[in-house]
Amino acid sequence: MDKEKTLNKPQAILFDMDGTLFKTESLLLPAHQRLFDKLREEGLYTAPTPPAERMMGSLGMLLEDIWKVVMPDGSERAHARANELLLQLELEGLKAGNTELYPGVKETLARLKEQGVRLYVASNGLEHYVKGIAEAHGMLDLFDGLYSAGEHGTKSKVHLVELLLQREGVSSAWMVGDRSSDVEAGRKNGLAVIGCQYAGFGNPDELAGSDVLISSFDELLGLYASSV
């Protein structure tokens, strides 16, 4: 853990989903090739399947922006169909039960909740995807709310977090995530930012501006215990 300062004890903690709670590659990599095979079958995309690393590197973006990075040569119709297919394949994968959380996620969340911390998800993903992960991994009861760009139509994580804080009446919180969008959302909403270094999706500068960097999820327990 790279600790730069003592944090104020939060009323709530907000978590990104992909790369923070959920080991996204356990679901996304099996779906990636199938998605592009289906697009080619339907005549919507003719190029070779883009590298999976391109998809993984774009996690944290809004879905409409992900396709601009992953298949910039694809038509609007192909992008729209890719949205439908990805959600379908991801929900099928979640039901199959072969996906993973990062080590210690459920145990850490449960201990934080026992100590009276309100727990939320703030994700740029689709509503059914975010809720599907929480349901598949038995986490629904741990959270006070699951907020997603897909459900609320927000155009950035900054606005999603702002909406969450207002609706839930949260006055002090930490933002925990692995991407620059999480750092920005925390900073612009006056929150302490905990940067997660263990996913490895982004570039080394992704988490610049975080108050604290952690290399395993359970380090949050020590941070909370030492906060004032």
What descriptive keywords fit this protein?
single chain; 228 residues; alpha/beta; Rossmann fold; 7-stranded mixed beta sheet; two-stranded antiparallel ribbon; 10 helices; 46% helix; 14% strand
Tell me what you see in this structure.
- The protein has helices at 25-41, 52-57, 63-70, 76-96, 105-114, 127-136, 149-152, 157-168, 180-188, 219-226, and strands at residues 2-3, 12-15, 22-23, 100-101, 118-123, 145-148, 173-177, 192-196, 212-214.
- It is an alpha/beta fold and 228 residues long.
- It folds into 2 domains: 2-24 and 100-226, HAD superfamily/HAD-like (Rossmann fold, 3-Layer(aba) Sandwich), CATH 3.40.50; 25-96.
- The strands form 2 sheets. The protein has a 7-stranded mixed β-sheet, sandwiched between helices.
- Strand 7 (173-177), helix 9 and strand 8 (192-196) form a beta-alpha-beta unit.
- Helix 1 crosses helix 4 (76-96).
- InterPro entries: HAD-like_hydrolase_sf, HAD-like_sf, HAD-SF_hydro_IA, HAD_sf, PGP-like_dom2.
- Pfam families: Hydrolase.
- This is MTA/SAH nucleosidase.
